[in-house]
Amino acid sequence: MTTRGGTLHAPADHWATEHEHRPARLPPVVYVLALGTFLMGTTEFVVAGLLPEIASDVHVTVARAGLLITVFAVGMIVGAPLMAMLTLRLPKRWTLLLALGIFAAGHVIVALASSFALILAARFLTALATGAFWAVGNVVATRAAGPAASSRALGTVGAGAMLANVVGVPLGAFAGQLMGWRGPFWALAVLGAAAMVFITRQVPHDTQDDQAVSIRSELSALRSARLWLVLAACMTTTGGVLSTYTYILPLLTDRAHVAGALVPLVLVGFGVGALVGFLVGGRLGDRRPYLTAITAPAVTTVLLAGLCLLSGQAAPTIALVALLGLFGLGANPVLIALGVRFAGRAPTLGSALTVSAFNLGTAIGSWIASFALESSLGATGPAAVGTVIAALTLIPAITIAFTHRTRPAQSPRA
């Protein structure tokens, strides 16, 4: 496996061992990519705090305005692998620049548009660019950091999106109240354009080997059974957590009787926990990837079960929500790194598919949880659904660890 450029080849199931040199600091490009994911995480969810203003301005209902979130999720699911294939022969540096350019242009369109249909189309376009940036950015980060720090690098890149939930989304919503809902979109457009400067300076040029790829060789990654196991784990680990988090408000207010004024602080606690969990999960994943991929969903399952049982009490519920942020997404950097690795000669497609799997798991989990919320389980229904989905993560995670132990050490195939 090369650290910069070149095809991402790993010796059979060899991960960075404890005696292998681990760089003290990550290269600057990793933090530049984290800045990009911060912007894209912000734009994905900032709409939630601006829905009434958007709906009033473009003359649609709030429920219909909610399609701006749905269409973005669909764009991420479709866009990550689609854009990975369409930009296959384009140097990764130029792919990142193109994605940021489209990102900025999409926000300008939203800021100027008066038609809801045009805003929807611009959001979908922005989501396609976001999927492309995330997929390619993950590959660039792992190559820049090297095999001994790949999970740590991915944890840092993903932490940008987690930080968006803690800082970017609240600031965007606050700015929208002061400046009007179009203001945050103008700001994101400017910041996206500024990020292009950092990408130009920090992302290295591809080597000749990077550009000598074909769609056929990329699609060969789909023959990897272990890649599909990773994708299944991506769907269930995120689906379990976010199916619960999507409907956390009724659990906090109706069941745990948390005061409405305290709910934002509880959500910030979840966001801070997720940020720390991503960073810690990335660090642990470089040393014990398979153990981390099993432990995080196992603890998450226990926490979600605890929410079901203790949600009638405010203090335990608040603590469990914060811990859910800490452990719930902690396995994600490891799963992304495994997806990139098990894709063999198609790391970009492997990365793109993990992005799609995370979003698909969120969409399916939230959809099932909506029915549970209206069932006899009431406010605890989504947490019960999340418990089951999170527990399912243990099946692919344990299977991956088992195949790692039983696979011949000299086999070059992923």
UniProtKB/TrEMBL annotation:
Q: Does the keyword tRNA processing apply?
A: no
InterPro entries the UniProt entry points to = MFS, MFS_dom, MFS_Efflux_Transporters, MFS_trans_sf, Tet-R_TetA/multi-R_MdtG-like
Any idea where the Major facilitator superfamily (MFS) profile domain is? 29-408
Name any one Pfam family assigned in the record: MFS_1
Mainly resides where?
membrane
- Give a yes or no for keyword Hydrolase in this entry: no
Spell out where the chain crosses the membrane.
29-51, 63-84, 96-118, 124-141, 153-173, 185-204, 225-249, 261-281, 290-312, 318-340, 352-373, 379-403
Q: What is this protein called?
A: MFS transporter
